[in-house]
Amino acid sequence: MCIAAASPSTDSLPKAELAGRAALRPVFQRQELFTMKLSSLLPSALIGAVASARSMTPMATIAAARAAGRSTPGELVLLDRPVVKLGAMAMGVGELFGDKMKTAPDRTVFLGLLARVMSAGIAGAALAPRGHEKAGAAVAVGTAVPLAYATLAARKRAMTQIGQTRSGLIEDALIVAAGAALVAFATRAGRA
Length: 192
Hints:
The protein has 192 residues and is mainly α. Helices cover 71% and strands 2% of the residues.
């Protein structure tokens, strides 16, 4: 945004006004960049929300999308390796089974939060625009951790009403569908 161009001629303006406009120019440019980044980082925030409920689903859905030949907007290093890609998909499926066990720990224990931080960070970076991967990772992690507490509270309420297995299956269906839809929307067909 060029403030000086707002008037037809800046030749007739006092030097103080020109200096004021020039001083404001970087403020408006940062504001436009900030607004642009927020909207472009929405997929990263949403994949963080997915990670809050299922720690491995973000990486599993991106790995599946990459296996199907889809490309992510952000650079993706780890999940392009075949062994890691298959491992991420296997861990995503395994988590769906493990979550229904009576001995499954809460998602807010240290290792559960660590898994969410790692998965959300990797997936958030992959869904961020190229060059903004660190911001995407930060947004995804910043969404995943606090929402892990909220999704745990909701799951515990559901468990008292319909039981662990039913509530887990419903949560699985919602989270896996949301993750798959988000990754399908945020990725492109064909490798970059």
